[in-house]
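Q&A log
Question type: sequence-to-structure
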Amino acid sequence: MTFKLGPRAISAGYRLATFDKTGSTNAEAMARARDGERGPMWFVTSEQTAGRGRRHRPWVAPRGNLASSILEVIDVSPAVAATLGFAAGLALEAALQRVSVEASLRSAGSDHMKYQLKWPNDVLAGGQKLAGILLEAEAVAGNRLAVVVGIGTNVVAAPEGTPTPATSLAALGVQVGAEELFAELSDAWAEFRGIWDDGRGFGEIRRLWLERAAGLGQPVGVQAGGTAVEGTFDTIDEQGCLIVRKADGTRVPVSAGDVYFGSAASAGAA
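Response status: OK
Response body:
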């Protein structure tokens, strides 16, 4: 089986570049943008050797996992472009739900797998990290912004020793190939990218994201650099910042950081 776009993605004008193996799909996408590619275009492989996640952490996808990046060149500010990550989370959650249902039907199973979105850019299953999302952006000719959204999903294997315990679809009993997941993801991306609408639809994206948010209303700790904020995960605001409500009722917006459910002091040391 080979990687193919879903029918909705094809009709929306998306194109596809596939690799048997590559260092980083994000790097491939951004290099093409620097050379004049304007997308929208997917870059996909089932074996990535030099990928990276947030804060330059390595994100290696052994053969059978899904490493995918979408290039969109758009007329928005970097702050607005950053909210596209929430649409990416929704797209991946929808694709995972669809392939899980199909896999369950094939195996005559009845379990309904639930996936949650962890601020700012992870997908969890059973409290474990299943996928991560990384946005990168660069200015290109015409005062436009080349935005690359990298989406890495543990299909057959998960890394060990990560700050947040990781899992894979195979470990969860969801027997699906990277190619099948990608076809669903490409269609779901076209759907939620349309809702996002260059940031104009972020209100709806925000509402849908909060419905799937991990830890909402629960104790949370956020570490950014040498500082920590602890309280209750209250919501995300209109810019996508995490709002932490402290014990005294103060609501603190957080624009970046590592989120731990429970105490940042104890979890952050893990």
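Response note: The chain has a mean pLDDT of 90.
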